[in-house]
Amino acid sequence: MNSESTVYDLGCGRGRAAFLFHFLTGAKVVAIDLVGPFIVTARRLAKWMGCDQHVLFCYENFLNSDIEKADIVYACALCLSQETREALASRLQGCRDGTYLVSVGWNPNKPWLHSLESFSTSFSWGEAPVYLKQIRFNEAPLDE
Length: 144
Description:
Blueprint: E1 6-10, H1 16-25, E2 28-33, H2 36-49, E3 55-59, E4 72-76, H3 82-92, E5 100-104, E6 113-123, E7 126-135
Parallel strand pairs: 1-2, 1-4, 2-3, 4-5
Antiparallel strand pairs: 5-7, 6-7
């Protein structure tokens, strides 16, 4: 992740991770959530911090979002149902080859998702596993 990256934060809440990604790396962030008050708060914070042109907050269902332009997709998936996770995996198939997926609490196993790293880390709400994968449609999986 760097200043040339476009990160999609799916289920962004009030934008804590989105702001972190932008301010640590300079990345452009498209943050998506379906909870209206979270988006309103996040937009106000972005404007107040002067990053509203680089951290964009969208009020929509991320399963209907155009995520194909992402370099990196971040999904804190701890509270997502299995059905939502499968639908998200289907949406990820529309991303470019080489796109990274960072998922918290969800280890999607698809032949086109190559495992790069996994670790457990602390969040403000507790500890959870994090999985770093890369979309590679034309290569044999690295983790087999």
